[in-house]
Amino acid sequence: MFLWRYLTLLLLTTAHTCKAKKCGRFTDLHLGHSFIGTSLKVRLLLYTRHNDVCGVLLSHTNLTQHPQFNMSKPTTFVVHGYRPTGSPPVWLYITKMLLDREDMNAILVDWNHGATTLDYLRAVKTTRKVSDNLTAFIKMMQDHGASLSSIHMIGVSLGAHISGMVGANFNGSIGRITGLDVAGPSFNNKPPEDRLDPTDAQFVDVLHTDTDALGFREPLGHIDFYANGGADQPGCPKTIFSGGSYFKCDHQKSVFLFLDTVNRTCFTRAYPCSSYEDFLAGKCLNCDRFGDAGCPIFGYDVIQWKDKLLKLNQEKYFFTTNADSPYCKTNYKVDVMIWNKSERWGYITIKLFDGNKEAVATIDHEASEFRKFTETKMLAQFDSDVQSVKKVSIMFTTGQVLQPKRTLRLLRVRLTHLEVKKPLCRYDVLLQENTEVTFSPLPCEESHF
């Protein structure tokens, strides 16, 4: 009896081990590989709703070996970028999130052998070989009935340029390319044929998060999102003393911002504007050109604005985020009219309360100017959304510690949620500098002014 139990346990363990061996894993290298360099090896790991955590290593020559690869379903390729230390990206769970969102073939393109090197220029040169490999594979998919229009390529850093090269090989017939902080070094100032550009797919959407270092500066797609202006991201280190995170945090943040849109954690509207400064000043909140749909939503669902965006000129679209997930902020237009005799300059902090929840917005990108009987327009970006505002608090500060404290006499303050668009007002409020004043908002009565 004991022997039988032992044999049963051994068989179950062996079966489990064999099953585990069938799971393809992303290549895990180490710093030693970075010093000696690695030769290119492209591995394609397939995930579907039937195997969303156990990747199937695909053949580059015979797709009949993989009956779970359904060519009638859309296919999304996820392509990573430069890997200086050889470790797998921390965001590999993106395939699971994509499958939770949509029934598809999710293919993780593992070119860690080739991306792992201390010589960045060597990795750049390898991107062309990776794109040729993927091009041959997609042609094989076509031979088995796949449609180019149903292919979506999500490229991170160098992976975005690889996706663009693949798209160019198919004369822009691929359905969509998403570039997440597209690599800048060695590609800035390059002509379109040497990098990602709008002609590489039927629709190209791009997110910029590190334009002052590792990312690409200028627009590359049919729509280009610049999170927090496209450079320094909230929550990322500001000094080199933070170690490796200082160099990669802004660049890597692009993936996490995008993931929040895949699983619908966040709903972030982005606004076309000539500069980030004008956006923060509330000068670019008009979305009339997009009709009832409003300005585009950043991320996975921006494809819904495809037809309209294809007719527009290339522009920059701006939005801001929180430091951590959920990254989305809630935008209000704030109109302030004062009745002080002399002008005032300063900053405003506003809090919204619903009884249990608090949302905060500090308008401090520049000092606002307030003049008697003149409406000052501002953009307030709250760290969360308060569905039913019961209380509002406002604090005014000049930022000047050596001057006497000022007062700001509000004739009216009006807050308009940019999605709900039902303004709330308060009349005749006296703000003492650095003192928070709380009140209950009222429906606005426009006939008063």
TrEMBL record:
<keyword id="KW-1003">Cell membrane</keyword>
<dbReference type="GO" id="GO:0005615">
    <property type="term" value="C:extracellular space"/>
</dbReference>
<feature type="binding site">
    <location>
        <position position="195"/>
    </location>
    <ligand>
        <name>Ca(2+)</name>
    </ligand>
</feature>
<feature type="active site" description="Nucleophile">
    <location>
        <position position="157"/>
    </location>
</feature>
<dbReference type="InterPro" id="IPR029058">
    <property type="entry name" value="AB_hydrolase_fold"/>
</dbReference>
<keyword id="KW-0479">Metal-binding</keyword>
<dbReference type="GO" id="GO:0006654">
    <property type="term" value="P:phosphatidic acid biosynthetic process"/>
</dbReference>
<keyword id="KW-0443">Lipid metabolism</keyword>
<comment type="function">
    <text>Hydrolyzes specifically phosphatidic acid (PA) to produce 2-acyl lysophosphatidic acid (LPA; a potent bioactive lipid mediator) and fatty acid. Does not hydrolyze other phospholipids, like phosphatidylserine (PS), phosphatidylcholine (PC) and phosphatidylethanolamine (PE) or triacylglycerol (TG).</text>
</comment>
<keyword id="KW-0472">Membrane</keyword>
<feature type="domain" description="Lipase">
    <location>
        <begin position="38"/>
        <end position="327"/>
    </location>
</feature>
<feature type="active site" description="Charge relay system">
    <location>
        <position position="181"/>
    </location>
</feature>
<dbReference type="Pfam" id="PF00151">
    <property type="entry name" value="Lipase"/>
</dbReference>
<dbReference type="GO" id="GO:0016042">
    <property type="term" value="P:lipid catabolic process"/>
</dbReference>
<feature type="active site" description="Charge relay system">
    <location>
        <position position="251"/>
    </location>
</feature>
<dbReference type="InterPro" id="IPR016272">
    <property type="entry name" value="Lipase_LIPH"/>
</dbReference>
<feature type="signal peptide">
    <location>
        <begin position="1"/>
        <end position="20"/>
    </location>
</feature>
<dbReference type="GO" id="GO:0008201">
    <property type="term" value="F:heparin binding"/>
</dbReference>
<keyword id="KW-0378">Hydrolase</keyword>
<dbReference type="GO" id="GO:0005886">
    <property type="term" value="C:plasma membrane"/>
</dbReference>
<feature type="binding site">
    <location>
        <position position="197"/>
    </location>
    <ligand>
        <name>Ca(2+)</name>
    </ligand>
</feature>
<dbReference type="GO" id="GO:0004620">
    <property type="term" value="F:phospholipase activity"/>
</dbReference>
<dbReference type="InterPro" id="IPR000734">
    <property type="entry name" value="TAG_lipase"/>
</dbReference>
<keyword id="KW-0964">Secreted</keyword>
<keyword id="KW-0106">Calcium</keyword>
<keyword id="KW-1015">Disulfide bond</keyword>
<feature type="binding site">
    <location>
        <position position="200"/>
    </location>
    <ligand>
        <name>Ca(2+)</name>
    </ligand>
</feature>
<protein>
    <submittedName>
        <fullName>Lipase member H</fullName>
    </submittedName>
</protein>
<comment type="similarity">
    <text>Belongs to the AB hydrolase superfamily. Lipase family.</text>
</comment>
<dbReference type="GO" id="GO:0046872">
    <property type="term" value="F:metal ion binding"/>
</dbReference>
<keyword id="KW-0442">Lipid degradation</keyword>
<keyword id="KW-0325">Glycoprotein</keyword>
<dbReference type="GO" id="GO:0052689">
    <property type="term" value="F:carboxylic ester hydrolase activity"/>
</dbReference>
<dbReference type="InterPro" id="IPR013818">
    <property type="entry name" value="Lipase"/>
</dbReference>
<keyword id="KW-0732">Signal</keyword>
<dbReference type="InterPro" id="IPR033906">
    <property type="entry name" value="Lipase_N"/>
</dbReference>
